[in-house]
Amino acid sequence: MTVFSAASAKQISSAWPDKKHGLFTYFMLKGLKGDADADHNNSLTIQELGNYIKSNVSETAGMLDREQTPDVQTHSPTSIISIYNGLETGQ
Question: What is the mean pLDDT of residues 1-7?
Answer without folding.
Answer: 95
